[in-house]
Amino acid sequence: MNSAVIGITVHCMLTCAGVLSNLLIILCLLLPWGGEGQVKGSGAVNLAVASVAGSNALLCLSSTLWFLLAILNKCQHQWACKTILYILVVSIYTSIWFTSLLCVFYCAKILPAQSSLFFRIKKNILQWLQWGLVVSLVIICTMSSYVLVLDVYPSNSTLYNTTAVNSSGADVAQQNTTSVFFGLCYIFLVALPVGLMVSSCVAILVYLCKHVCRMESGSSEFSSPQLESHKRVIWMIATQVILYCLCILVIALTNAIDSLSSITTNAIFNLALCCYAFGTSVNCIVRISHLNRRVSHLGKRLTSYGSLLWRGCLASYQSNPNASGQNQNRANQ
């Protein structure tokens, strides 16, 4: 029982960290103030980062809720299990796709146009990004609806073996159809966005590393701000790729170990997702300059408000003893 309580506590702490950090990003991007007199970031940057933050926040909440239902074994209604699992699956795939679109956006923004199609994307990047987010979300919600026809419970199933719960008694034709469907889902929902992410990140890193070397060899003070901006993008992209690879590696290794119980697998699965979501939010806050300024500005405002509140409480506390003393004297008289 103690280990279960410790596990739930750790997962809830990681969930709070992941959700709050991603909500902080969305809040700072929506606020009209912060970073006055400085570049506040384009609408495309804010839209891409806010989409990634929103999907990661939903990912933390749904994953932790699924884990809590598994460890407490309180989900006795199929509709509740299906709804939570559907939200979890959608949030996973949207996080993958939105992160991939973020990398593609930076690729189109940074790399020079070498074709007419690439030039059109670069010129109307906000419209392309909006269409990409909407279309990917609609397709993900549609293709993830297979969860609604499964018979699963969190206590005896994981996200990876749910397809075998109700297919053991199916005939060969149904199994073949199911295999083709899940193959198409894997290609579009996992392989395609991961391929776009990796190719975009490699192209960005190669181009920026060469460009940074040329700028450092020139040692021009005029190019110093642009040089620092390029370095921040390099570190952000590299860190994001590392976080994604570590998350996939942990989940794949956990799924490959047959001796682990479903609860243990769900626990590791949830830890990996929450750590990934929290790491992604920290990476964006640290590496995106205008977002970093907004978070710092928000922190200063909250600190000043806290200081004023503390002074008001202290002044009220210092005046209360005098008032209470006068009331006591009146009562004695």
Automatic annotation (TrEMBL):
Q: What is its main location?
A: membrane
State the UniProt keywords alphabetically. Answer: G-protein coupled receptor, Membrane, Receptor, Sensory transduction, Taste, Transducer, Transmembrane, Transmembrane helix
Residues passing through the membrane, by range: 6-33, 45-72, 84-107, 128-149, 180-208, 233-257, 263-286
In Pfam terms, one family for this protein is TAS2R
* Annotated localization: Membrane
Q: Record's superkingdom?
A: Eukaryota
How does it sit in the bilayer?
Multi-pass membrane protein
Q: Which family does it belong to?
A: Belongs to the G-protein coupled receptor T2R family.
- According to UniProt, the name of this protein is Taste receptor type 2
